From TrEMBL, chains A, B:
Organism field: Aquibium carbonis
PROSITE patterns linked to this entry: HIT_2 (PS51084)
Domain spans labelled HIT: 41-110
A GO term for molecular function: catalytic activity
Transmembrane stretches, start-end: none
UniProt signal peptide: none
Protein name: HIT domain-containing protein
InterPro entries cross-referenced by the UniProt entry: HIT-like, HIT-like_sf, HIT_Hint
Length: 139, 139
């Protein structure tokens, strides 16, 4: 289900509920998954009708690639993690979005995936703001 | 652990063990995960020293994006699946590789991820060849 999100852009209700805004990139809105178990960012291309990466135009694909890499590099720098996990699944939330997650040995479900594992643990609000600020500074 | 793979290119031993070759693209070798639970392809950029997407040069990133989308579209066409799941994790196999998986309602672990779920079930050899041929025809 899509919700009007200002500027005429819409955001799926579940994405809106589970994530918090960080910044606006060229193609994508960058959001934080509100789950303190992992440093977890989500790119939402401003193309609410798209479901698959290959549905994007070649120009949008190039921009998304650029922004994914920008965000992956910033997240690795900010967290010092072992490995970035990048994924576009969309089995539950169909609006196209890309996960960029910082993973380290011994984190919950390591070396398995973050998706579908246990229950989301919201950040303390202050820590969420601090993490968002750290990401903006690393971009 | 990397294994020499002809033409001086190396392939991680676990990737080599769990997957079978399909075809050679411009940047990537395209392989099938030998697991009949899901139609599952793997792109292996011929950059064996790279671990993260953002380590690639901009030109390689553009080529990888092109090949990921080509393969995603072909897999969706060949399988009629509900959703393509794309992921670059690398928590276990560090050599850079990208998963492109065809997912449909009711498949094993739907709508959760394929990674780390249960035990790989090898294809009957004849079906594996047929699937590889179907993918080559759809590219």
């Amino acid at each position: 289900m899509l919700k009007n999100h200002g500027k005429g852009v819409v955001l799926d209700r579940r994405l809106d509920n589970d994530t918090e805004p960080v910044t606006w990139l060229g193609l994508c809105e960058l959001r934080i998954m509100n789950d303190r178990r992992w440093p977890w960012l989500i790119l939402v291309p401003q193309r609410p009708d798209m479901q698959e990466l290959h549905d994007l135009t070649p120009l949008d694909q190039a921009m998304l690639t650029f922004e994914m890499n920008l965000v992956g590099e910033a997240l690795k720098k900010a967290t010092g993690c072992t490995k970035i996990n990048t994924g576009a699944l969309g089995n539950i939330v169909r609006q196209l979005h890309v996960h960029v997650v910082a993973r380290s040995e011994g984190d919950p479900n390591w070396p398995g995936p973050v998706w579908g594992h246990g229950t989301r643990e919201p950040w303390p609000r202050e820590d969420l703001y601090r993490f968002a600020e750290q990401i903006r500074a690393s971009l």
